[in-house]
User: Fold these one by one.
Assistant:
Number 1:
Amino acid sequence: MTLLSARRALRYRIARALALIFISWSLIELHFIQQRIREAGSIQRDKPARKERIYIASVNWNNEQVLRSHWNKALYTLVSELGAENVFVSIYESGSYDNTKGALRELDWQLDKLGIPRNITLSPVTHQDEIAAPAKGEGWITTPKGNTQLRRIPYLARIRNLSLLPLQDLARKGITFDKILFLNDVVFTPGDVFELLDTNKGDYGAACSLDFSKPPHYYDTFALRDSKGHEAIMQTWPYFSSQASRSAMKHMAPVPVTSCWNGMVAMPAKPFIDHPPLRFRGIPDSLAQRHLEGSECCLIHADNPLSTEKGVFLNPLVRVGYNGAAYAAVHPIMDWLSAWRVFQGVWTNRLRRLGDTSWLKAKTIRRRIDRWEALDTKHREDGQICIIDEMQILHRYGWIHV
């Protein structure tokens, strides 16, 4: 055998050995991940893990279809199982163009039959009314075209805070709650709620579900940040770049994150009745003027003292959908996370981490914030992980980028 032939044979043996190692490693990893997924998929809750008083808060806009098809029935069943003495339902509807009001009136009638304490506000004020109001106070911005427009996020923060007004009124009367359950317009079951409330054995600053509109891609990219404060590196499983978040997701365990919302959120009620109380907010208008924005559902975690003390967790066992088809697509868990999808997700995630350039975007945002803070000693923003390079304004039929 010539020297050249020997070298070729050696390279072939090395390549074959590396291929065998790669295949073996992948199969072993896939086996253990699938095993944990199977074990997690066998967990089904049909009752709360502990007795708690739950304040249920929801804001609604143009949600008639999901209310009638799933949401009303699920909420009715949930409060029935929790018991009228353990719940309060607060719903704020904000000027819908469809018949969301009619669907909520039907729900109100059903809850009344159960004796459920509640406050359901049906506001006649539409987006168009909000936009047409005089531009005064906070929440307005000058767009690049020179127009004064109403910002989306301060508006949403104000609406969410209105859904919490009964909480303070009740607290003044000595009526308090252990947890607040924030519900989006999602398809869910009482079992999903019970599992969410028991995240990390019920000890957390916040616990969130995973939400889906077009599976397998998760929906709420605006609010979700991993354990290091980074946006998800991909919209499919296992989502994250940080090791702690990825590892927990692979184990189907509560995933440590710095922020999440994702359709359904449980938070201890105490910070919301403290002095001063925790409130939803947007970033200052003067900072937003630099073409920056941050979700009110992310900033709430940045402001919550319990986020650091107890942690924020994404619970992969709780998956909700924005329609029935999306919910069905991620249940049961083995259908959602097939062996091929797990294998594909693990290696796609690795390759994306190798080529990750998100630090460039973060550097640009950081530079704008630094310049803003340098203008005034009162300029300070603690929710920097939430801020993205966008300008969002309210629109008659929703919101738009400018």
Note: DSSP finds 15 helices and 16 strands in the chain.
Number 2:
Amino acid sequence: MTAHSEKTSLLHQLNEPFYLSDEAIAFYRENGYVKLKNVLSAEVLSYYGEIITDWVFKLNKLTKPMEERTTYERAFLQIMNMWRENEEVKEFVFSKRLARIATELMGVSGVRLYHDQALYKEPTGGITPWHADQFYWPLSNPNTITVWIPLQDTPMEMGPLAFAEKSQTVEIGRDVEISDESEALLAETLKQFSMNDTPFELGEVSYHAGWTYHRAGANKSGKARKVMTMIYMDKDIKVIEPTNEYRVADWQTWLDSKPVGSTADGKLNPILY
């Protein structure tokens, strides 16, 4: 296969529909997350994973030794909106296959990009404490969803993502940022929920709702746990008054400071499906 035809094949895989069963949709809506096997091929993950990794290390500014970092900093290297840096990263982030799954799981008419983010947990990287993402987002309804894409097999020792099932409906802890405090408070609160804490095979991805509580273990392997994520939102979602400093920052950074009450359609929020 020529390089051109190989690239055409990869792009086709990123954009062709994935068969999503009624059972998977029902599971997501009940539990606030779903794990799906064989969504992306080894070839797609290898090709785009290499490019994403290059850009993570090119853009990373966190160089402190692990012992000098906060709990949040120990959890992962976090690089956002890489789609603006490189055309091939943009191809991956704008995948219609992945955006369509998000649309179907939420039952909306289409989705916009909120932002992408690479989350690389280095060897010896610490836990990612319990949290719900939408704490950080000034958005008007719960139709938000994140796809979590490991770029390698992710066994338990690497710290795969874990979910508190059905926790998207609990109001407790919605005003808590990611921290040691959130881990302590929520670990206690979330005992009432079953936890799904299982490895990810290569090609397996998860989708979780903005208010679903999740965490990840430490990376005890000798290799980085490389993950790419995209956050999608209902294409008609509105901007709400930011209620904490993080939401103010997100409103300015990702939502173009769009007026409160208007559709969240800033220049960084294209419709992907």
Note: The chain is about 30% helix and 20% strand.
